Amino acid sequence: MMQTFRTEGNYRSADRLSPAELRAAIASREILQSTALAFDTQRQLRFDLGGVKAVMPFGQCADGAESGTVRDIAVLTRVGRPTCFVIEGMKTGENGQPCYLLSRAEAQRMCKAEYLDTLQPGDILPCTVTHIEPFGAFCDVGCGISALLPIDCMSVSRISSTADRVSVGQQILCAIKNRDVQGRFVLTIRELLGTWEENAAGFTVGETVVGIVRSVEEYGTFVEIAPNLAGLAETCPDLHPGQAVSVYIKNILPDKMKIKLVIVNHSLGQSHRFDLRYFITEGHIDHWLYSTPESRKRIETDFAVAACNPV
């Protein structure tokens, strides 16, 4: 059976598999998962697989743990969370009882060699947001392997906070932008969220819609009405970024890539975050052009250049 690589939390659970099923998983090198129950004083994660104890020594908790590049905090925070692994075998544990030996590091090495290392800039892959920072979101791209989605790659519309776009635990689609100097993926999502034309097609002059204030300038207020689309309304000094408002669409100008708005309700009294709407969901992108044909302003991404000139 060909192995399918997924983000952590999306593998077959080993908790209720029979001894015969677990032996088959050992033989086939299938990646399974279970919830880590403890990180003990011997610096190993402990599990329970169908009533049988299982341990994951520190060096097997992540690729790089044996060489000292993985800190204890990265391992002990797995406690209480689904953790993927391959079963390396069995040993006789305390009181002569059998004990499974698990390796997350081997699952990650398999994921890298057979899946991630075959991908190129422009390839689209599923990810899970694991934690967020002011500069971006860290995402699981397979077996707990982390990649960065920078905040400026989350949309064409400017956002002030990573939490404006994604949340921890959210499953999203990303494209590979490039690799950093350490060979880790840098991700982008804005190219999947539609061009100016694709987003503007969902709106009509004369309707009133929900918007989110993104910035307040002397010459006007930028209000996002979709993750990759913002318009300009009048100056409103009492507004602040992240505030939800309702706006009347006064005009849509494809040649200038501008949408003119009038703020109707200055405060909806509740927070709002747009759901991600993907216009591309699989495959590969070589080149992406956000701009309209009539516009002199070009907003684009050339993934082919990144593929030919890796960092």
Automatic annotation (TrEMBL):
Which is an annotated Pfam family here?
Answer: S1
Q: Which Gene3D superfamilies match?
A: Nucleic acid-binding proteins
Annotated keywords: Ribonucleoprotein, Ribosomal protein
- Which positions fall inside the S1 motif domain? 122-190, 206-232
Q: Which family does it belong to?
A: Belongs to the bacterial ribosomal protein bS1 family.
Q: What is this protein called?
A: S1 RNA-binding domain-containing protein
From which organism does this entry originate? Answer: Faecalibacterium hominis
